[in-house]
Amino acid sequence: MMNSPSRKPSAEPAIGLDSFWMPFTANRQFKGRPRMLQSAEGMFYTDTEGRQVLDGTAGLWCCNAGHGRREIAEAVSRQICQMDFAPTFQMGHPLPFELAERLVDIAPPGLNRVFFTNSGSEAVDTALKIALAYHRARGEGSRRLLIGRELAYHGVGFGGISVGGIANNRRAYTTLPNVDHLPHTLDIERNAFTRGLPVDGVEQADHLERLINLHGAENIAAVIVEPLSGSAGVILPPVGYLQRLREITRRHGIVLIFDEVITGFGRVGAPFAAQRWEVVPDMLTAAKGLTNGAVPMGAVLLHSALQDALMSGPEQQIEFFHGYTYSGHPVAAAAALATLEIYRSEQLLTRAAELEEHWQTLLHSLAGLPNVVDIRNTGLVGAVHLASRENSPGSRGYEVFERCFREGLLVRCTGDIIALSPPLIIEPSHMDRIIDTLGSVIQRTP
Ligand code: PXG
Prior knowledge:
The chain is an alpha/beta fold.
């Protein structure tokens, strides 16, 4: 535990920080000045110094129903006592079947099969494999190429980093062959300070036609995009862009995958972004909000035609050589079922649509503050894009993030972009506090 003047010195010995290699973290910097959270309730974390920290990020885009939900805790605890684990390879137990049905109930039309994973990264790799296996089973085995997009984040598996487009996540490793990328849709020159989806940029989707001309449609398996890019700093789809991708992929027999790991479960005002923007992909990936972040779990929701194509062999033949020990884990499934029940009873999957306008107005009140070059929003997502300092990109964003935390607000920084994605239970008073703190910190950060 950390000692501080505001807190009585603890009798417990200090915890060594060296052994835990923290993910996606500047470990030396963090360990020199740690930020440690200890408990969470509703819209707030409490840190180890006893400070309340308003959660502007729903953890990492996952605690959509807010923190400390007893219903989830109780469901998890009951399930561990009743049955801690059971295999789902050639064996079953009721919970993942029930959960799959509940997911199909809220899914975009036609997505009526569910494959469970433990994370978003695994869901992405699973979806890419399903696309490849599907084409091969239909005698179109030449379709091996996977198309992602610049700046995309699809997790950290080799499939995900290959179709992903964030250079730092790729350059030290090796990536899959047979991958190409669409251009991203961030266009500050034309679209800065747009409220909601940008009006300019639909033609970026036409780049897919050029990739099809280049590679041949008969060689392309799938296109995967995030309906909105979260990790890259909230890059929104221009009006009509997703529709156009759908139209082109359909025309050329290419599987369209939406990576809804952050947009799923109400973030943009509908259960999935596919519904909000009325474009139904052939598959979508989900994770995070699926269990309100309480237990790791991911899923691929797909059209039954993709599974059916693999079912042509004899009945005793395994149709898809893929799965995880913990696919459909009983404890994760119990957490997810309790989470979906909260979303339903509190109508959280559409709440972002109701709050969106107020959120947008508050967020855009930050325009005009020093170094603010763009503000982007949709649903309960927001981004304040700061100009980078000459010769030290990312330093301004990090300072804003760090100061916000010390002043009781958790935001995310991606380079110099401050991203916001609060729990969907947020009230207007919390929004005021987010905007006041962030605005005041930006004002004081040269
Ligand atoms: N796809 C998308 C679209 C994601 O946003 C993943 C896949 C991978 O999920 P897992 O569960 O394997 O981490 C993600 C993860 C951020 C941030 O700050 C976003 C993610 C993870 C950590 C930070 O924007 N998204």
